[in-house]
Design a protein that fits this description.
By secondary structure, the protein is an alpha/beta fold. The protein has one domain: NAD(P)-binding Rossmann-like Domain (Rossmann fold). The protein has helices at 23-34, 46-59, 73-87, 110-140, 164-183, 220-233, 245-256, 258-268, 273-284; strands at 14-18, 38-43, 64-67, 92-95, 146-151, 189-196, 237-240. A 7-stranded parallel beta sheet has the order 3-2-1-4-5-6-7, with helices on both faces. Strand 4 (92-95), helix 4 (110-140) and strand 5 (146-151) form a beta-alpha-beta unit. Bound molecules: NADP nicotinamide-adenine-dinucleotide phosphate.
């Protein structure tokens, strides 16, 4: 694969990791610090970040945290600005923060969908736009200008029932990252698209549906290690776990036999006809999509 032989040094780099208070983000922050990067860890739950930074500082004493809501543009842009002010540069940006949405489409309001897009996709666009100018200036001084890692989801490749809005946020991230590969040509800024399959993190505690995926889940550290390798080797797109038979076959079917995938998905977690009846009743009342009061 082109670029496989390149080895980018991570030691001494300044890395921002969003969604670092748990799961993939937490393990990625630790993996980067172990590799010698000074990490700026961010999420909303500050006590968790404080605890994480103690661990990061064993490896890189200047690692720190900035707490806030990445779904707010001011915070997302300020995160990058503050990092550059504090350390003079930003070498690695890992856009990992995300929230799940596994709900009947009829019950999601436009406001809820927009809020999810802000956290899962727009945050990545805001931090990336803020990071490109300082990265370009770094590139002018020779060597790697920077690396932007976007953590998407296999749900954008094969979309299960009730995941439409979540998949849309990750599909947007896929298109954005693939666009970066083209548009950042010649800038020395590298972009990586990471596509995790089912990973064992607390994100699943936020999904309340017995019909939701209940199969094998893989450790978050597996994704973290793949992220570090992708940065080092300048890989473009990584599905984790790699060469996993269920993911490989699902991707092939989604590409060549999308109707089969659609039928399979509908059989695994079928739409309850009662939801459709409720949605029709709301439509008769002139109500938009969303939950019934008290539901
Ligand atoms: N686990 C999986 O099976 C799986 C599969 C495919 C893709 N992914 C993606 O991988 C990424 C990490 O997920 P995970 O599984 O590690 O889940 P997780 O353990 O729930 O972590 C999500 C992280 O995002 C942060 N976050 C959520 N909303 C935020 C907000 N408004 N502002 C700032 N930070 C926010 C959370 O921190 P606070 O709550 O402290 O703010 C937390 O650190 C997500 O983008 C997810 O979509 C996960």
């Amino acid at each position: 694969m082109p670029g496989e032989s390149v080895a980018v040094e991570i030691a001494g780099k300044i890395a921002v990791v969003t969604g670092a208070s748990s799961g993939i983000g937490r393990d990625t922050a630790i993996a980067l610090a172990e590799a010698g990067a000074t990490v700026v860890a961010t999420a909303r739950r500050e006590p968790r970040l404080v605890e994480l930074v103690e661990e990061l500082r064993i490896h890189t004493p200047a690692s720190c945290h900035i707490a806030g809501d990445i779904g707010e543009r001011d915070f997302a842009e300020g995160l990058v600005r503050e990092t550059v002010e504090r350390f003079g540069r930003i070498d690695i940006l890992v856009n990992n923060a995300g929230v799940p949405k596994h709900e009947p489409l009829y019950e999601i309001s436009a406001d809820e969908a927009e809020a999810l897009m802000r956290v899962n996709f727009l945050s990545c666009l805001w931090t990336t736009f803020a990071a490109i100018p300082p990265m370009l200036l770094q590139g002018e001084q020779g060597g790697a200008a920077g690396c932007i890692v976007n953590v998407s989801s296999f749900a954008a490749t094969v979309t299960p029932t009730y995941e439409t809005v979540y998949a849309a946020s990750k599909g947007a991230m896929n298109g954005f990252t693939r666009g970066l590969w083209s548009d950042l040509a010649g800038s020395n800024i590298h972009a990586v698209l990471v596509i995790p399959g089912p990973i064992d993190t607390e994100i699943w505690d936020k999904v309340h549906d017995e019909g939701a995926y209940s199969g094998a889940k893989y450790p978050a550290r597996l994704v973290a290690d793949e992220i570090v390798t992708a940065i080092r080797k300048e890989r473009f797109e990584v599905t984790v776990p790699r060469r996993n038979p269920p993911l490989v076959s699902a991707r092939l079917f989604a590409t060549f036999f999308p109707a089969v995938i659609r039928k399979g998905v509908a059989r695994m977690n079928p739409v309850d006809p009662a939801q459709v009846r409720r949605a029709i009743a709301r439509a008769r009342e002139g109500l938009p999509l969303g939950k019934d009061r008290g539901a």
